[in-house]
Amino acid sequence: SKVTVSLTRTLELCLPNATECCPSPLCLVETLQVLACRGSVMLAQLLIQAEIFANSSFTGNVSENATIIPNQAFKPLGSCPCNLTAGACDVRCCCDLECTPDLQQLFSGSCFTGVFGGDVNPPYDQLCSSQSMEYTPEWFPFLCVQSSLDNTPFLGYFYHGSTSTPKVPSFKIPLQTSPGKPFTGYREGDPIITEEDEYFTVPQQSMAGQCVGNAPVAYLHGFDVKCLTSLDSYKEGLPHDVRINSGTADFIQQNVVYRAITDRGKFITESENLLAAEVLCQNVTFAEHYKFIWKDKNIEQVNVTVFLGSLCDGEILTQRFTVEFLSLNSTNGEELFENPGYQVGKPVRAANLNASDPLGSLNIWQPAGRGLCASATYRPVLFGVDSYSGCILEVGINEDCSFLRGNVTEKLNALIQATHIGKRDNSSYSDLNDWVEIIRLDPFSSNVSTGGLKGICPEIPANLNIRIIFAQVGAVQGIPQQQILAVQISYSTVLWQFQCGLGCKNTLSFLPITASVQFIEVPARPPLPVTRYQKLYAEFDCNRNEVCWPQLLYPLTRFYTGEPYSQSLAKGLFLAFLVLLAAIMSNPWFSKLWNR
Fold first, then answer.
1. What's the mean pLDDT in 514-540?
2. Locate the Tectonic-1-3 N-terminal domain: which residues (predicted)?
3. Cα distance from N-terminal residue to C-terminal residue, the chain
4. Is residue 560 located within the same domain as residue 515?
5. Are strands 281-295 and 255-260 parallel, antiparallel or unpaired?
6. Over 60: is that where the pLDDT of 414 sits?
């Protein structure tokens, strides 16, 4: 349908109290109401209002007074939520002050109700004068609330709207202060502080495996990480002229040595073929090595070696960052920690004391790609972390069983390039008492005949089991110290059988070989042997047995609080009387007496 509003008179002022500011009237207002009816029943109504303004410009004064926001506890800022249009009257919004009385008469019977219509402070159900509840209990006049509408759950101080300013955590941390000593020194795990009271940061790997550029360096916690970056995403780290708090409120300067990278192939992992004229290169940091010389709770010296090289556009750089803590009392570059025991997550120290070079390794597999043993790399065994890894070995159908056993054993033994394991994290190579010998349980080897069958090999040592026994032997500065007591290596054998594929056209099968590491904690001292008295007493120990005979008469004691003592005593005597009566009646002479 189409509704047309035509002009039949001259322009007049829209507002009755407006003054004549122009020689001609300003605008014209026309209102039309359209009803939709079915018979005598009205189904819908439509209100149409047209305002025609003259083409004029505003020449009045603009008020520069600031808007005063009232107290929100007593007068809400949005007292008329249905007022959605500025400078115009909103239809059916009776609280809109821009609606003239003439306009309000048009929709006075269809105003918005509730909070949206401006009733922002309605009477609540607990008010004595409220009649909104359909069912009013009899006790309502005694427990209702007698209050004015200026103090309700919606307005006033019925609910005090007090708020506290949130404390935003800062990246800066306060120094540990005490009278006469501004800084108490570092403890293991404390973040290292700079002169600006900020963390000393070096890029490190997060739990998700990604590198974090602003990760704090913890005291006595070294690391060696590698981070991938490109020329577009490269960012410079913390400047090397930043001075570090030594732990006594003194500040030390970093000793920085710059070197140039000669072999870029060790750091550039990917390169795109670009024309020489289009390549953009920049001198960046390839590696940074930090050495902290410490003593007690203080840092004595910081040596930094920075390796610089040229990184071009389209290349992927593998940056390396290492942090190492060396004691001031160390000799020959050998680290002597004040915290000698193993910490969870630290690599287990291994040594080959039968060779000229005592440096050894204890590793497990870290498969990559298809998981084949040929492409698998190694990762060290971490103290206190039970691990399970493996790889897949390709075996042909005509494989000799003896050769297969030797090949699998060789790959498993390659994980353990050591004869001894360090008892502590600072075990010295020159002191044999600091090491425990690895106990090897070789796989049972016997001449097992397969009956000439092809593709079947029994007794294949495919599983390597590493068991490390440790104990807690003390504590340093409240940190528990663990020490390795024994290490055992054993093998588990399996029966390998060639798996025939579709039509048996494949000539290779797969043999999974695994390596597991288990840490077993035992008491530092063996427990005392149990005496004969303790074995007998264990039968009457209420904490170890479901039936507790010593507490048979517990309800008759003063410690029982389930009921009054007089009642429990009466019930106990009555129960004793029944037991005595049953004993008397079960006696043979009682039956003879009863028969008489």
1. 79
2. 55-164
3. 118
4. no
5. unpaired
6. yes
- Closest by Cα among 572, 579, 577 to 554: 572
Please indicate, yes or no, if residue 8 is contained in any of the structural domains: no
Distance CA 341, CA 343 (A): 7
Angle at 148 between CA 144 and CA 154, to 5 degrees: 85
Residues 440 and 497 in one domain: yes
Reported as a single tens digit per residue, the pLDDT across 179-208 is 333 467 898 888 999 988 889 999 988 766
Domain identity same for 226 and 311:
yes
Q: How many CB atoms lie within 10 A of CB 435?
A: 24
Instruction: Please tell me whether residues 133 and 249 are part of one structural domain.
Output: no
Measured on CA atoms in the order 502, 504, 506, 511, is the torsion positive or negative?
A: positive
- Kindly report the pTM of this predicted structure: 0.42
pLDDT at 255: 92
Integer Cα distance of 324 and 6 in angstroms: 90
Give the residue with greater pLDDT, 264 vs 19: 264
The CA–CA distances, whole Å, from 416 to 385, 492, 585 equal 17, 16, 79
Q: Tell me which residue of 181, 190, 185 sits closest to 247, measured CA to CA.
A: 185
Rounded to the nearest 10°, the torsion over CA 73, 75, 80, 86 is -110
| Residues 386, 287 share a domain | no
* Structural domain for 473, as ranges: 352-521
**Tokens found for residue 531:** 């005496």
Does 139 lie in the same domain as 88? yes
Predicted local confidence at residue 564, as pLDDT = 85
Query: Which tens digit of pLDDT belongs to each residue from 35-94?
Result: 778 877 777 777 777 666 555 444 555 555 666 766 666 666 677 888 888 888 888 898
Determine, yes or no, domain membership for 11: no
Q: Please state the domain count of the chain.
A: 4
